[in-house]
Design goal:
The complex is a heterotrimer of chains A (325), B (503) and C (156). With 325 residues, chain A is α/β, with parallel strands linked by helices. Helix content of chain A is 41%, strand content 19%. In chain A, α2 crosses α10. Chain A is globular. The chains are: A alpha/beta (325), B mainly alpha (503), C mainly alpha (156). At the B-C interface, α3, α10, α11, α18 and α19 of B face α1, α2, α3, α4 and α5 of C.
């Protein structure tokens, strides 16, 4: 084959390719693929459950939903991108209540949780608990807290990091009771549980990474930090039931940038709400040890506006907030 | 025995075998393209595994994990560009061999060593996983800090000609490691206004820049405008294209040693295959009769590095299956896959799902067989890459590096990381600085810092905690011995040089 | 004029950098924590340690390079290869910058053409074939198989 013939074939191919990318005609929403941003990397629980949700919502969605991982800054990056996106409904994001209501007081971020988002729904909760080793002398939360109060500086506890929801809960208890204990931040929840299993810390406050060990009897669950009891351990009381006015509400939700047209919001809400009620999705949540929990647009907005002042006060009173420096 | 039979039934199905085959195949291909890694493939295969049954999907993913870990060695040897972080130790000697025309010999040794390391460490996993899980539990913060301290000694072995230059580059690696949110107080460090930096510099883009782009830039120097340059020629002598029995025998001790190190480090979460490869390499150099040949094309060096990094694959599953702790990014993604399948790694897994676990073990062994078969076939084809003129290869490598860096987090910021570290790596190499210490120090810094400060938190600020804990004390003792040994060796070398008449 | 050894220059650059790191960058870019009493908790601890190590090792390199003195660097160093390398770095920067403006595929095509030309490939058919193979492979792998979403550019 000569060079010029090869060239003609190649040019022909290029023209065909460019035709393939030509833009489609205009129509009502959704007329082009919708990007669903995920604040964490591929393969994590948030990623997995958001992808499943998108898969199910696709059935009621006229254009493809493209799941895009935008990890960075512990989720902050995606929230910033979402806040700055065009409110045309083609950019949606899986938001995390923690990044919305806690992180803005811990670090400087470029979004305002009260002004920058159109909330659509909250679709699940993570479950948190306080665990100790099986041969520990404390059978209840109160015994543990009394011991910690009587022995200042002796008790250590691990969590997945400073500023996490479970860490704030523990420091809330400490403030309330006048306890002095030492927090050991670990890299990741499983490492925090392992630190307890290996006997390197006294207790561990973490999401359900401890579940297999509580079931096998190696660890003891003292209290549930969330608002509802954990189905697998119906006898363990929540903080509220034990008389402490605190609950950890933390989960993934769906939101878009501020100012989305109401008909677009309605379309998205319908597709995703139906998806979140399907058995396949609920089964997956169960496998991932997450609690099915639904807040609609109004309830989600209320939750955000209500918990922001509370979190700000707590974070600043612990001396963690960048505002308090 | 009933369990074994049931497991065999579960495993010996057409779609399981195909799943493992496809996984290994994809892993090797993606691992062997600079800029793409197996972790990326695993993360993106996961959504496809929603509907598959557990043994198929885990076989697929474990196959990709193992294949990718091996595949990285191919471009490391041929193009001096590691395909995955774990192959960074392989290029020290692998590419030197290729320059001597012995690329096929190096590629074959890499397969033998990878498959041996992998198989041996899988056997350890299968036979003694639950007892070995104790290692992961015993490693508290002080033990971890001391172990990392000991591991930093590896830098001195891979520094090449100038120890001090190696140490400087190691210090740069430590500095780069401090970027990102502080692990203890969650305070932002060196953010410069970029939230992308909060989680630190990503390993993959940094590696791509440091090794692949710097290699690209080095090559742009030697190209005269308008002149097509070929790669090194492959030797036509048959003995340069195969591994002789004698050579293989010489490589067995380093392989065994390196597999042992890789298995132990793999059982401790957080260290990862790259450090294991360097540690195996360093020890192989120490036991070698010709340590001076290391870095100049020692076949033992390739063998040690490859068996070290692949031994981590099997061993990484020990903490993953018994405790649910992922040892590296690849394993973390695997953990997610287990969860989707409703398999909860941890103490109950071996009791409740023993049949599935056995079937997964069988899939692991099959993955090793496929790794060998596909690898042996693939290198024949891959080694032809060097027949294409450099002028075509390097631009393509650059494009893959940019796309690979972008694709991992879908972030243009990571592309800039590639460019910046490419320039840094280029300038360092031009002035005779080795790059491996930077990578090692960068990977170890966050673990060292986290563990060190956690320990001081636990002890209330007293350094005594590192000496009173027996395991950490032992590690620190070994570190001290290593340093003393090194200093004595250095002094002896200097004296020997001084005695020689100056020419 | 005194002719400096290359190691001396490299060591000096690193030494200066470590001083800037310790005295300017760290205090500005790492916040202190109000509740910190313990040394172990200070986020700046390791920043100072690592900067110190870098400074120390660089100083040793400078001293060693003086000891080696004049015997090294006998052969004159040519600037030309370095300039070529830096030119290509600039090209790579342009590639990365354009990727965000005009789209990843278009900028890749432009950058590849430039580099192929630089590496001495002059047959246009060769360049086109290369672009189709490389871009086609990347398209199939990243867009079709891995579902990577490319940045919005003016062109695709």
């Amino acid at each position: 084959m000569t060079d010029s013939r090869l060239l003609r074939i190649i040019v022909g191919c290029l023209i065909l390719l460019s035709l393939a990318f030509a833009a489609p005609a205009f129509a009502a929403y959704p007329e082009k693929p919708v990007n669903l941003l995920i604040p964490y990397g591929g393969g994590g629980t948030t990623d997995v459950c958001a992808r499943m949700l998108a898969n199910l919502a696709q059935k009621n969605f006229a254009s493809p939903i493209v799941v895009v991982n935008r990890p960075g800054g512990g989720g902050v990056l995606m929230h910033e991108l979402l806040a700055q996106a065009k409110p045309d409904g083609y950019t949606l994001g899986v938001v995390s209540t923690g990044v919305l209501t806690r992180t803005p007081f811990l670090r400087k971020v470029r979004y305002d949780p009260e002004k920058d988002f159109t909330y659509i729904m909250l679709f699940a909760l993570w479950q948190y608990g306080l665990v100790v080793q099986k041969d520990a002398p404390w059978k209840t939360l109160d015994e543990f807290l009394d011991y910690a109060k009587a022995n200042p500086g002796k008790v250590t506890y691990s969590t997945a990091g400073t500023g996490s929801a479970q860490y704030l809960a523990m420091e809330y208890l400490a403030q309330l009771k006048g306890i002095k204990w030492t927090h050991i931040p670990c890299k990741g929840g499983i490492n925090a549980v392992t630190a307890l299993l290996g006997g390197h810390v006294t207790a561990c406050a973490q999401a359900v990474e401890w579940k297999p060990y509580v079931e096998s009897g190696q660890l003891r669950l003292l209290a549930v930090l969330g608002g509802q009891r954990i189905p697998a351990f119906p006898n363990v009381k929540t903080l509220k039931e034990l008389g402490y006015d605190y609950e950890v509400v933390s989960g993934p939700g769906l939101a878009g940038p501020k100012g989305m047209p109401p008909e677009v919001v309605a379309y998205v809400t319908k597709a995703f709400t139906e998806a979140s009620q399907q058995k396949e999705f609920l089964d997956l949540l169960n496998k991932l040890e997450m609690l099915p929990y639904y807040l609609n647009k109004k309830q989600f907005e209320d939750y955000v506006t209500k918990s922001i002042p509370l979190k700000r006060k707590l974070v600043n009173s612990l001396g963690l907030g960048y505002e308090s420096k | 025995m009933d369990n074994l039979m049931a497991a065999f039934d579960m495993f010996f199905q057409f779609h399981v075998i195909i799943g493992v085959f496809v996984g290994v195949f994809l892993g090797i291909i993606l691992g062997s393209i600079p800029g793409l890694t197996a972790t990326m493939a695993i993360a993106l295969i996961i959504p496809m595994t929603f509907t598959l049954d557990p043994v198929v999907s885990v076989g697929l993913l474990v196959g990709a994990y193992k294949g990718g870990n091996y595949g990285g060695s191919i471009p490391a040897i041929l193009l001096n560009t590691p395909g995955t972080p774990a192959a960074s130790a392989t290029l020290l000697d692998g590419h030197e061999l290729a320059k001597q025309g012995k690329s096929l010999k190096a590629l074959k040794m890499a397969i033998y060593a990878s498959v041996m390391g992998d198989t041996l460490s899988d056997m350890v996993l299968i036979l003694v996983a639950p007892p070995l899980a104790i290692i992961a539990l015993k490693m508290g913060p002080p033990e971890m800090a001391a172990l990392i301290f000991l591991s930093l000694l590896i830098i001195t072995t891979v520094s090449g000609e100038s120890m001090i230059k190696g140490l400087i580059v190691g210090a740069i690696g430590l500095v780069v490691g401090t970027i990102g949110l502080d692990s203890v107080t969650a305070v932002r460090r060196f953010g410069f206004g970029f939230p992308e930096l909060d989680e630190g510099i990503s390993l993959v883009p940094m590696l791509i820049g440091l090794f692949a782009v710097s290699e690209f830039l080095i090559n742009t120097e030697s190209v005269g405008m308008g002149k097509v340059v070929q790669f090194f020629a492959r030797s036509s002598k048959p003995e340069d294209n195969r591994v002789s029995g004698k050579e293989f025998k010489a490589c067995v001790p380093p392989i065994l040693l390196s597999t042992g190190i890789g298995t132990l480090l793999g059982a401790i979460p957080g260290i990862g295959p790259s450090i294991a490869a360097f540690a195996g390499y360093a020890q192989a150099k120490k036991i070698s009769k010709h340590p001076e040949r290391f870095g100049k094309g020692a076949l033992e060096g390739v063998a040690a590095a490859e068996s070290g990094n692949n031994a981590v694959c099997g061993a990484n599953l020990i903490p993953l299956l018994t405790l649910g702790i992922p040892g590296d990014i690849g394993a973390a993604v695997l953990l997610g896959a287990f969860m989707i399948q409703g398999l909860h790694p941890g103490p109950m897994l071996f009791q409740e799902n023993i049949v599935t676990v056995y079937a997964i073990f069988m899939a692991l062994m099959l993955a090793n067989v496929f790794n060998y078969c596909i690898g042996i076939f693939y290198i024949r084809f891959a080694s032809k890459v060097v027949l294409i003129p450099k002028g075509y290869i390097f631009p393509a490598v650059l494009a893959f590096c940019f796309f690979g860096a972008y694709g991992f987090n879908q972030s243009l910021f990571d592309v800039w990381i590639v460019v910046i570290f490419g320039l840094l790596g280029y300038l360092l190499r031009r002035n005779g600085f080795p790059l491996a210490p930077l990578l090692i120090a960068f990977m170890l810094e966050p673990i060292l810092e986290g563990a060190f400060r956690q320990s001081l938190l636990m002890s209330g600020g007293s350094m005594a905690i590192f000496f009173t804990h027996p395991i950490s004390g032992t590690f620190l003792g070994l570190t001290a011995v290593g340093i003393v040994w090194m200093v004595i060796g250095g002094v002896r070398n200097a004296r020997a040089k001084a005695k020689k008449p100056l020419v | 004029m005194v002719k400096f050894n290359r190691d001396t220059i490299a060591g000096s650059i690193m030494l200066v950098f470590s001083l800037i790191l310790a005295f300017i960058i760290t205090p500005n870019q790492v916040e202190m924590h109000r509740s910190v009493a313990l040394l172990a908790l200070s986020p700046r601890l390791f920043c100072y340690i690592t900067a110190g190590l870098l400074g120390l090792t660089s100083a040793i390199l400078i001293i060693a390079s003086f000891k080696k003195g004049q015997e090294a660097d006998a052969q004159p160093t040519s600037w030309e290869p370095l300039l070529r390398g830096l030119f290509c770095t600039a090209l790579a920067c342009a590639y990365a910058a354009l990727a965000g403006i005009i789209g990843f595929f278009v900028s890749t095509a432009l950058a590849m053409t430039a580099f192929l030309f630089y590496f001495g490939v002059r047959r246009w058919a060769g360049i086109l074939l290369f672009l189709i193979v490389v871009l086609g492979f990347i398209y199939v792998l990243f867009i079709q198989a891995l579902k990577v979403v490319m940045p919005d550019g003016l062109l695709y």
